[in-house]
Structure formats: C-alpha cells, structure tokens
Design brief:
This protein has ten helices and 17 strands. It is an alpha+beta fold and 337 residues long. The two termini are 21 Å apart.
C-alpha cells in the first residue's frame, strides 16, 4: 500500500507592500518541493480573503477555522504550512499564532521570535546584550513625530543615515539621508509602511549575507554572499531588478568567512530560530587600541522568511554549498511533522 503523501500549503501574499514579492517566492518554493513526497498547494492570503490555487488557475476559499479547502468534492486539510509571506502577517508572528491555535506545524520560528526579528530596533537592542555589533539607531513613532527635533536626531546618529520602516523589508520606504532637510520627508515616507520608523547610522563597508538552518541533529550554515549594489544602497531595484552583483562565495578571507558563519549560527541559537533564516551584515574597518586595523562584523537585519525565487540569496547559497534545495526543504518539513 502506498504511503499517503503529506499535504503542504505554501502560504504567501500578506498585507504589506511585499505581497507580490511573496507570490514569486511561493512559486519558487512550489517548484523546489518534492512532489513525489508531498501534495503541494499554494495558498494566497490577502486581508481576510484566503484562497488556495488549483490547477488551471482556479482559486477556492480557505476556511479560517481549520485552514481546509475543497478540491472538487474532497476536503483538503494541509499537514504543514510553509510560510513565505514577507511582512505582515507571516513575518511578524501573527500567522504563527494562528497556526499554533489550530495545531498546524509551520516552517518558521515561533510567535515571539518572529515578532522580535520583525522589529528591527528591538532586535538590535536585544542582540547588543549578547555582544553583537549593530549600528547606532533610534525610533520615531507615529503621532510623536513633532516631539523629535531633526537637529537632535542628526547630532545623535550623524549624516549620512538611513531612515527605514521599523517593521518591513524589501527596502520599501527606505531612504539614505545625506542632508538635514531630507530627514523629515524621509520619515513621512517610511511611515507609509510602518507606524514606527528607525533612523540608523550609515556604516561604510562590505555588505554580506549568510543563510542557516538547523534540524534535529544537524546544523547547516551556507556559504557567504557578497552584495555589491550599483545603486546608492541595496534598494528595491537592486534586490529585484538585477541592479546588483551577488557573489557567492564572497570575495573575503577565510578568517572573515568563518567569523560570519560562526556569528550566523550563534545568533540562530541565541534567538532559538527555526527553519531557514538569512542574516545581513556590513563589515567595517576599525582601529583597535594597539592602532591595528581589523574588520568588525555588524548585523543589519534578520530575514526569517527569506526570498526563495530561483535567483534569491538562499537558493544561490544552497547551490554553492553543493546541496539540493529540494532536500533542504524536505528536511525542514519532515523535522516538524
């Protein structure tokens, strides 16, 4: 008798500006998953409209009671949710709480970790306590903008600086501010994406990113990617329109590579992450007390639902590691089933 296939829902969409990016990641994951082992459906969330995609492009409603849906006369209830929503509700803990309530295993970290990693400022403050180097930053909250004086922000953070939504990704609403008069319009722009805005000190250096996943009895840290943007910074066009060079493995020393990978693994464990994460870094040159120059690894942010198109960082790193993305995803799913 053939073993019944587990049903996997690749959950995408969401309620942020990253909705369309998420749909592309879902197509990537769908193509990567082992169809010999799993019965796979893409489920698109858009506000309170939840729909499963069927063959031929037809969509059917998904019950919010138990995440089931109808395929003809058959009721399909997924065994596992592979979450690839970039932004709310899939990257901030909201959807994870729902799946906990209906007792459905999922691919990401838990509610607490998703919520913490989605809040860039809070994450930075937390990891600073473990000795992780981060940039100087402050938060401006909607409704309190007038309580913050521009000159005081710049005196504390310096110029140039970055203004970005405190909760969000894909560089929507992010501005590199070079002059004082650019600060206030940049804060307003970022507040279109998030009720909290982070103003962050600029750090000149080499941008790197490194992925990692861990399952029972196994820890995998992927090769490091060097990110060389053709633009002012790694913005949306650089990420999604090819205006960037992504070099895997990165053109860095073996010592720096090892340090980045060790830090990635350590942060994964400090937070108690689950599934695949990707951590972005900027490496700066600093002079120590002996007047010797050394490289400091500064964490920029953590992506707990990283992009998963064929050209995204994680699939690139998986290939560079000599692994098969199909096997990686199978390990993550079967570890939780």
């Amino acid at each position: 008798m053939m073993k019944k296939k587990k049903i996997i829902a690749v959950v995408c969409g969401g309620d942020s500006s990253e909705h369309e990016v998420s749909l592309r990641s879902a197509q990537g994951i769908y193509s990567f998953l082992d169809k010999e082992k799993f019965e796979v459906y893409i489920v698109v969330l858009n506000g309170l409209t939840w729909e499963a995609e069927l063959e031929g492009g037809k969509r059917v409603p998904v019950s919010r009671e138990d995440f089931s849906f109808k395929v003809g006369r058959r009721t399909v209830k997924p065994d596992f949710a592979y979450i690839t929503i970039h932004g709310t509700p899939g990257e901030d803990g909201v959807l994870q709480g729902y799946f906990d309530l209906i007792r459905m295993p999922y691919s990401t970290s838990n509610v607490l970790i998703e919520s913490l990693t989605f809040n860039k400022f809070m994450l930075n403050q937390y990891l600073k306590g473990f000795g992780v180097s981060v940039s100087e930053s402050l938060v401006v909250r909607k409704g309190n903008e007038d309580l913050v004086i521009d000159d005081e922000i710049i005196n504390h953070i310096g110029l140039p600086c970055f203004v970005k939504p405190n909760a969000g990704g894909s560089s929507f609403g992010v501005t590199k501010v070079k002059q004082l008069e650019e600060l206030r319009p940049s804060i307003r722009k970022a507040m279109d994406e998030s009720d909290e805005v982070m103003v962050e000190a600029f750090m000149p250096g080499t941008e790197l990113t490194c992925g990692c996943y861990k399952v029972t009895g196994k820890s995998v840290v992927f090769p490091v990617t060097e990110v060389v943007t053709h633009n002012e910074f790694f913005d949306y066009d650089a990420k999604y329109k090819g205006e960037v060079d992504e070099i895997t493995p990165a053109r860095i020393s073996d010592d720096l590579r090892d340090r980045v990978q060790e830090l990635t693994s350590a942060i994964y464990d400090i937070l108690g992450c689950s599934g695949i994460i990707r951590i972005d870094y900027i490496v700066t040159k600093v002079t120590d007390e002996d007047d010797c120059e050394r490289e400091r690894i500064n964490m920029l942010e953590i992506n707990t639902t990283p992009g998963m198109t064929a050209t995204s960082f994680i699939p690139q790193q998986v290939r560079a590691a000599g692994l098969d993305i199909k096997d990686v995803l199978t390990e993550i799913i079967e570890d939780k089933l």
